[in-house]
Design goal:
It contains eight helices and 18 strands. It is of the alpha+beta class. The protein has three domains: about 200 residues, no CATH class; about 80 residues, no CATH class; about 80 residues, no CATH class. The strands form four sheets. A six-stranded antiparallel sheet has the order 10-11-13-12-14-15, covered by helices on one side. Strands 1, 6, 7, 8 and 9 form a five-stranded antiparallel sheet that branches. Helix 1 crosses helix 3.
Length: about 375
């Protein structure tokens, strides 16, 4: 469940054509049978850049945990102080640990709420506004809890809530409940799940399996209804960002909470001749990045998307994944990378390597583009 607290606008740097520079990318084909152990670890700091030239990745101080690494030590301390003060003002007996606040609610019992999205939202505004942002967040949280019993009765009658159903693409680890199996989800790809929600006027609320089991449709059918409700909202305008080497990446960017869902029907945005699929990243709920695979320019796109996805994931709000995936006929394959000193090593799975070996060279490059020893080369 998350309050509708989207930033007033996406940052301008995500709308300007990027000029990116990243360490040379090397594609490894030896020993690619097993992804590196760090494949699903947090994004390495050396690849942070986020659509800016020569940006230096901010390094979180020792005292700042990974979930709040975008804050300085002083900002992190101030944020925790404001949250603690808000809990005290509401007479909520709470504790903050590992990015989650747990407190006793007078009517709903013990509750918990993740703080990363709230911290990301605060970070996108001047610090003088943080206290009001936190206050409004908990105001909304309490209103939702007060209304939960009444809404739960409606939620069990499908015709009353079918128009509210929307499916979100989100990180599996972001399911902020003790038992993720209590929610309506399906696995999409490594680290990603489709989550069924109610898109209510003030809040996006997860659908519980207990509620859904009283509907006359299956879980899979309910998730499809949620996807189609998003799709009926209309296509988003894809923005094109030119990259060096004559290629580009496409981006779906909007303040809507369900932009990430559009990755579930990415085929709607690809050219008809995209038989090889696309490289895709979903860094947060307001963004989908993709590059249709036509030729070896895909390696340039991978370089840029590594940088952009890691930066946007870090800033949020609603972080989903810093990783790249190969999307093909609705199948999602993780494309692991490793940072090795000054280089980023791209370690794709065997089937993707086979694809690289048969792709034509990028426009304007000779046939040696893949293994001729240039910046993008196979080891």
């Amino acid at each position: 469940m998350g309050p509708r607290s989207a930033p007033p606008r996406l940052r301008e740097k995500y709308s300007a054509p990027p000029h990116l520079r990243v360490s040379p990318l090397r594609v490894r084909t030896r020993g690619f049978g097993n992804p590196p152990p760090a494949a699903l670890d947090p994004p390495p700091r050396p690849v942070y850049n986020a659509l800016m030239t020569d940006a230096v990745p901010p390094t979180a101080p020792e005292s700042v945990p990974e979930w709040a690494s975008f804050l300085s030590s002083d900002q992190y301390r101030d944020f925790l102080a404001i949250v603690s003060s808000e809990l005290d003002a509401r007479a909520l007996n709470g504790t903050i640990r590992d990015g989650v606040v747990r407190f006793d609610h007078p009517t709903a019992g013990q509750l918990s709420a993740g703080l990363q999205n709230l911290a990301q939202l605060c970070h996108q505004h001047p610090s003088r506004r943080w206290r009001k942002i936190v206050h409004d967040h908990f105001d909304l949280f309490e209103r939702i809890e007060s209304d939960r019993v009444a809404f739960d009765a409606d939620a069990r009658v499908l015709p009353r809530v079918q128009s509210l159903l929307k499916t979100r693409l989100c990180a599996a680890e972001s399911l902020d409940v003790e038992d993720p199996g209590s929610l309506v989800t399906r696995d999409v790809g490594p680290g990603l799940v489709a989550l069924l929600t109610f898109d209510r006027p003030e809040v996006v609320q997860s659908v519980s399996r207990e509620q859904a089991t009283e509907w006359p449709i299956t879980i899979d059918e309910a998730l499809k209804v949620g996807v189609e409700n998003v799709r009926r909202g209309g296509r988003l305008a894809a923005k094109e960002f030119p990259l060096t080497g004559g290629t580009s990446l496409q981006a779906l960017l909007a303040e809507d909470f369900f932009v990430s869902t559009h990755a579930l029907f990415l085929g709607d945005y690809l050219p008809e001749d995209s038989r090889h699929g696309a490289i895709v990243a979903v860094p947060h709920r307001h963004a989908v990045l993709f590059h249709p695979i036509r030729d070896l320019s895909v390696l340039k796109a991978v370089e840029a998307m590594l940088v952009v996805a890691a930066g946007m994931f870090r800033e949020g709000p609603g972080s989903v994944s810093p990783f790249l995936y190969w999307w093909q006929k609705e199948e999602w394959t993780l494309l692991p990378v490793e940072v090795q000193g000054e280089q980023v090593a791209f370690t794709p799975p065997p089937e993707f390597v086979e694809l690289l070996e048969v792709l034509p060279p990028a426009e304007g490059e000779g046939p040696e583009g893949l293994d001729g020893g240039g910046e993008n080369s196979l080891e």
